[in-house]
Amino acid sequence: MLCQLLVHRVELYIGQKTTNHFVLTLNLSPPSNFWCGGTKMQVENVGELGSLFTWDTETWVSELTFYPPDGFLAPHQVTNIDVTFHPSSILYDIRLERIGCTVVGGETLYLIVTGGCIEKDLPENYNFEAPVRSSDMKTIPLVNTTTRPWCLYPKIMHKFFSGLGVITVPAGDTAEYEVTYKPMTMTKPPNEAQHEGSVLFGLPDGSALFYGLIGVANDPLPEGEFTYDVKARATTDIYVSLYNWTKVSQHLRLDVTVPPHPGYGIVSTLEGPPIVEVPGLSTRECQLYFMGHKTGVYPCVAKFIDNKTREYLFFNLTFNVRDADVVDRIPFNTITRELRVHTLHIRNPLDMMVSFNVKCDDPEVSIIFTDCSIHSL
């Protein structure tokens, strides 16, 4: 069933003014339509004394529910009452009369609400797909075959779907209504939980157009793609901006992916803080460190993961590693025909044993070990 609550026809009967008297307002723009239920009604005590109030929940118990059904209002206090419309049968014109609100110390107020309940087949679905925190847009054609223009107030159910609050469809014409899907959380694999919403267009003749909205949120797009030209065996500092898209603080765990060098394995390192805390709806700079030990091109990925939600953001970082600078200059100060010895200390920073050759083009310098192997630390 498709239930339609028309709140543009509301009548209040307020008796003689007393010390305690209330003003009741349905806080909506006319007319609005809802899928099987409700809205909020504003209640205000405009008197000078506090008072209790109680709604009549017995007369229309099968059609209408108020929550809370009773309460206390201090002088000039305002509160909202949830009104849920749940008709028990299909009827195009439902009129609920003399819904009483008893005010202690004042007179009973009365409310009249009209609505309708119609049959509706399974809705036509519109499917959306987008990377998480990105958007996808679809248009829904609204065909007006009548001789009068329509002014429609769409009701969208789901926080990740949005659209205009009002649309006009000329008589005998078609208007395109745009629905935008911007998911803030990823969906699970196919055939599991997806983002399911709906949009309802209440028509002037009392009928309605209802469409299902189904969204799939894939892995996010990279937050940035950067390329750096660096020298081998030199530490390079880089900075990335981490934006927290939620309202609560996030603790993001750093996970890096470094490609191996053909024939050598992993010959570069990308490091940073293991955990980064980012306050809600804020941006924080994170410093990373890169060192390449062999020339080449290294496409790396720096991923920051929220362990609680499994949501993440990542950066594609490409490093073009060039030849290293001279590590040091070794002075040999001696006299003629006197031997001078200098010992070189070489550290292997890799997770594998490396072998290398040592040579010098100067005939006056001799090297004891020309072939060396160093185990990993």
Description:
- The chain is mainly β.
- The chain folds into 3 domains: 2-118, Immunoglobulins (Immunoglobulin-like), CATH 2.60.40.10; 124-218, Immunoglobulins (Immunoglobulin-like, Sandwich), CATH 2.60.40.10; 224-322, Sandwich (Immunoglobulin-like).
- It is 0% helix and 51% strand.
- It has no helices and 28 strands.
- It has strands spanning 2-13, 22-26, 39-45, 51-55, 64-67, 70-73, 78-85, 91-103, 109-118, 124-131, 136-143, 150-152, 155-157, 161-162, 167-169, 174-181, 195-202, 208-218, 224-231, 236-243, 250-257, 268-271, 275-278, 283-292, 296-306, 312-322, 354-357, 371-374.
- The strands form 8 sheets. A 5-stranded antiparallel sheet has the order 1-9-8-4-6, with no helix packed on it. A 5-stranded mixed sheet has the order 19-26-25-21-23, with no helix packed on it.
- β8 and β9 (109-118) form a beta hairpin.
- The model is unreliable at 1-36 (pLDDT under 50).
